Each structure stands twice: as structure tokens, then as C-alpha cells.
Amino acid sequence: MGGARIQSPGGAEETLTAELRFPRPSRAEREGEHRFQGLTPLATDFRPFGARTPDIHPLPRRPTVCQGAGRRVTVSPGSAALVARAGRVVLSLTLVAALAGLACTRRPPKEVVEAPHGAIPRRIIAVAPSTAEIVCMLGAVDRLVAVSRYCKYPPELADLPRIGGPRDLDLESIVALEPDLLMLRGRNDTLEKLCRDNGIRTYCDPTETLSDIERTVRQIGDLLRLEDRATEVVTEMQERLEVVRRAVAGRPRPGVLFTNRGPDQLVNIYTVARGSYLDELITLAGGRNLFGDQDAAYPMVGLEEILIRQPEVIIESLFGVADRPGLRDAVIAQWRAVGPMPAIKSGRIHILTADYATVPSPRVVRMAYDLVKFIHPEVPLDFE
Predict the structure, then answer these.
(1) Whether the Cβ atoms of residue 73 and residue 19 lie closer than 8 Å to each other
(2) Is 275 exposed, middle or buried, given 0-12, 13-18 or 19+ CB atoms closer than 10 A?
(3) Are 43 and 95 a contacting pair, CB within 8 Å?
(4) Which residues of 139-173 are buried (b: 16+ CB within 10 A; e: fewer)?
(5) Which domains can be identified in the chain, with CATH numbers?
(6) Which of the residues 164, 204, 274, 283 has an alpha carbon 20 to 30 A from that of 158?
(7) Are strands 288-289 and 300-301 parallel, antiparallel or unpaired?
(8) Which of 109, 127, 106, 101 is nearest to 48 (CA)?
(9) Measured between alpha carbons, how far is 196 from 315 in angstroms, rounded to an integer?
(10) Of the candidates 141, 199, 205, 127, which has an alpha carbon nearest to the alpha carbon of residue 170?
């Protein structure tokens, strides 16, 4: 199979064309033994809104030697350890991560490295929902060979193979699919090493701000040789966001609390602050982010501080929670128990369960229109 690199007796690098077999972790190992305040692994796969996820530090292991077609291939200890003992990798677990953006470690993004001879990627694996969406928006869905379990949109992704999530990525399947490009959001040392060891290019999506989203679309367009379509996508995004900006210009800016948490109780509440595209969207939609003064882009905040700041509008992003009858009433009842706030008195508590709510892709335009409806319902702005 293509992609895996071996050393021939003469020292020349060759491409292996045999099936690689890796040890597979058990279900218990994949789920892991660690729990955070009783949460299940599904609820702890990410950090909220794509905030920093710690580097994965695989356990030290001897190199795994795989046999195939009369050749032996050595898989690096880091990659083999993660496959064999995914459940024992120690992660800092936290509440449900909304940005199913599959964020990895947030370090400065590396340069996009082109393949020799100008090769155009034809077999792409997208780990982050944002990059999967962008590839599809550029008209290249046929180049995707797999995505992570959190890539839900567009519907054309439904039949693609899944390579797990950030805590249980199936490294064996990644290699077996013979990708020529793997796309991440942020950085992931383990995956990047696996790709280096197997001759797979990586692209690290750096999106944190609205301008980052535009830049990412252009970079992916360049990488896929779809520059014209990328320009069209960016131009449409800019034009529609400008419509939002003009629609709310000159209006009062109510104080907005944007949260991400689990639906059952008011604990582990994360919000957004400066340096995040969601903070920019609140401002663009005519609101005043109550926690825009915080240094961390996605800080956890307490109920006492929220009560002090007296939000006029509360927007709750309940990622992974299906909208259902009684959900909003239950959420309002939770907030009423906290104490008097303008948002409670006026009934301006809104719930977002849409899959695009916290995915940093060009669909932030739809999110901006939703925010206008919540913040300035008097403005007649229709997304369609």
C-alpha cells in the first residue's frame, strides 16, 4: 500500500505496497479509565469552542514491526503507542467541546508545504469539521476519503469512512486509506509524526478569527488548485457579513453572554472573549460581549461573575443536544434560580443547537444572522 516508508538494504527509501497490521485497543482502552466529574468519554472529547487541547504524550514503547509482502516496516513508538493504548493516553478532560472543530494544540501554524512536482491532493482525510466543510464548499467532496465522526455537514459526508475522534483516532485506518493530505485544526504532534513517518502531507488549519477563516479558505483553495472558487467563497462571506454589519449600525449594543455547557445544570460554563471569531460575531451582530475583556479566548466563568455583569441577552450553545419541547423552559428555569438579570426579566434567553453554531467555517455567516435575530429582533434580516 502506498504512503508507508521503509529503508531498503541499500539505504534507499521505498514505498511499501503491503497491508500494515497494528495492534488494536480494546473498547475499554479506547474509552479510557479516566473520568472527569462523572462525564463519559463522549462528553469529554474536546475543549469548548476549540480551545487549547494538551499535547498527547504516548507511553514509551519499543517500535512495532509489521510484516507484509516479505518486508518489515517499523512504526514509530509514538504512533504505535497511541494505537495500542489509546485509553491510557492522559488528557486533560473537560466538558463537552462545542466546536466540534476538533481543535488540537494551539501553536503558531506551520507553513503549508507543497508536494514535489506540484502534485494536487486527491485523497484527503479531514479531521476537523471546519476543513471538511471548506473542502466541500470548494467543490472537492470527491477528494475526501475519510473524515472524523464529528464531521456532519454537508450531507454528502454521510457515507464516508470515519477515523474516530480526537481521543480515539484510528491510526491504522488513516494509513490504510493511503491519503496524500491530512487536514487538522490546530496542531497534533502524534498525527503529524505519523504523517511524516508515512509520507503524508499535513495541513494545520489556524482558524481563530474571522480573518483566519478567510485565510484558511484561500490556503486550502491554493492547495487544491481551486483558487477561483476559494475567492468566490471568501467574497460571498465578506459581502454577507457586511450586510449584517450595516443592518445593525447605530443601534444600541445590549450586553450578551454567550455560553457553552451541558444542558442539565449550570456548571462548567464556558464563554467567549477577545481573540475568538465568536467574540467578533457578537460585535458584528450589534451586541456587546460581556466577557470580551478576558485574556483567554474561551474562559470558564462562574455564576457570581455572570450575575454581577447582568446580561441583557443570554445565548446558550448546547452542542450535541437535540432541540426538543421543554428544553428552553428548562434552561430558563435554571437561570431564574441564579438571581435577577435583565435577560431573565425580558425572556431573552436563546438556545443554539445547530451544527454550525461553533464551527469556524464560512457558515459563520448563518451564525451571524442568528445572532442578529437574538440581539436585535427588531431588525428584518433574513438569511435566505
Answers:
(1) no
(2) middle
(3) yes
(4) ebeebbbbbbebbbbeeebeebeebbbbbbbbbbe
(5) 34-206 (3.40.50.1980), 251-375 (3.40.50.1980)
(6) 204
(7) unpaired
(8) 101
(9) 42
(10) 127
Cell 453554531, residue?
Answer: 357
pLDDT digits (tens, 9 = 90+) for 215-251: 999 999 999 999 999 999 999 999 999 999 999 999 9
3-class secondary structure, 173: helix
SS (H, E, C) 265-288: CCCCEEECCCCCHHHHHHHHCCCE
Q: Is the pLDDT of residue 19 over 50?
A: no
CA distance 94 to 110: 27
Alpha-helix residue ranges (DSSP H) falling in 285-363: 303-309, 327-336, 342-346
- The pTM (predicted TM-score) of the whole model is 0.71
> Strand 144-147 to strand 181-185: parallel, antiparallel, or no bridges (unpaired)?
unpaired
Cell 494509513, residue?
A: 175
For residue 154, whether the previous peptide bond is cis, meaning omega lies within 30 degrees of 0, is yes
Helix (H) or strand (E) holding 174: helix 171-176
